[in-house]
Amino acid sequence: MAKASMSHEEIANEAIKHALKALKKRHLLEEAAHAPAFEALSRPFISQGSEWKEKAENLQVELQQCYKVQSRLSEQLVVEVADSRVSKALVQEKETAIADMQKELTEVREESSQLNLDLEQKIKELEVVVSENSELKAQLGKMTSIAKNAEAENKMLTDRWMLEKMKDAERLNEANALYEDMIQRLRASGLEQLAKQQVDGIVRRSEEGAELFLESNIPSTCKYRLNAHEGGCAAISFEYNSSRLITGGQDRLVKVWDTNTGTLSSNLRGCLGSVLDLIITHDNRSVIAASSSNNLYVWDLSSGRVRHTLTGHTDKVCAVDVSKVSSRHVVSASYDRTIKVWDLVKGYCTNTIISYSNCNALSFSMDGQTIFSGHVDGNLRLWDIQTGKLLSEVAAHSLAVTSISLSRNGNVVLTSGRDNLHNLFDVRSLEVCGTLRAAGNRVASNWSRSCISPDDNHVAAGSADGSIYIWSISTGDIVSTLKEHTSSVLSCRWSGIGKTLASADKNGIVCLWT
């Protein structure tokens, strides 16, 4: 563009120079042409010389004025050429801007067309969704009606089921009475071995390698004092019909002990938090631990490897129990106010129950269909694990419930609370059938565990002063007080064969009593 502009300016200058040269040449030619005439005329008309001289001077003045006009015209031409160059540049910029705007307009039109097509498609989809929504509302109305009918039917079936449970409990009481009578007659006749195999009026074969009990010993001597865990131990449990003890502590370890020798058999590792509770399946194959890491851990006891990590709780898991009917089903309680039902074969949660208060302890009933739960608000609740429905509720303690233990015959459930009471409830009616207390007994924490002896005759519970109190269920009196611990006792557990009582304290010490 600059080169084109410069060429126009040079052309104008050349044109001006050429015009000036032409005028000078013309002037010289005219002077040359008129010179003879002037000379001829000057002779005859010498008198007119002054007049012609004046005219020549006037022509000279006019010529100078022409030069000035020519100069001004040249300057105007230069200005006009510069203005033309600027105008041409502006025109080119405008043309470029117009081209860009036309291109943008084309793109906007295309985008508008696409948006119109999308809008039409969305309108069609919305019409389909509205139609489906109308159909779903109609189906929801039908399903709501069906659900109401099902709920009414479920209530009727639950009432019938509770009635059958009461009848079963009455039949079980009759069987227990027959059993007691048979035991007395067999003892009188000297058939002690046969009496050991009599349970609930029938002959039940013992599990492989297990030994059945006749009656539990009242311990009096600390046989072994084990430095089990660092930082405290709150979870202990015996293998079923075995003398092996499983313990879990704040050091994130689960340990297996031989109570006959007081030696450590194995360590189970992999837990990422403190062990707050643990349980063993009835086939003695798996150990399940509740942890402060919000998870449950399942170990294979024979290999010592973690079999499952059960996740789903959003706060620490403080209680766990396994079904007394099947080793497949497990329940857990957490401080996220939920109780979860787990399938160990599948390794995931099958149902979640939302409770009104944080649950500290729980226990399966004998039928494996219901669970007892003890809560911070002091209430004992009974739940259906299939439906998650609350079947019954009773105010068990004035303060938080810390422990729940079911008797071996399934007729009595023991609860312990921060009000330092230990209450016995009839499973059929959830009415208190006994209360155990002691002047020096103080429950140490929200997860202090008490237990019932395998023969259902005694209760053992630890105290904040390090003592262990043993009561007779039939009389409600203290039959023994054990002193060996130097810190608060958090858990007590009787061996399933009734020979050994284990206790654990806040310092991680486990005592084995005989």
UniProtKB/TrEMBL annotation:
The keyword Aminoacyl-tRNA synthetase does not apply. Keywords: Coiled coil, Repeat, WD repeat. GO terms for biological process: autophagosome assembly. Residues 91-189 form a coiled coil. Signal peptide: none annotated. WD repeats lie at residues 226-267, 268-309, 310-352, 361-393, 394-429, 453-481, 482-514. Residues 48-173 form the Autophagy-related protein domain. This is Autophagy-related protein 16 domain-containing protein.
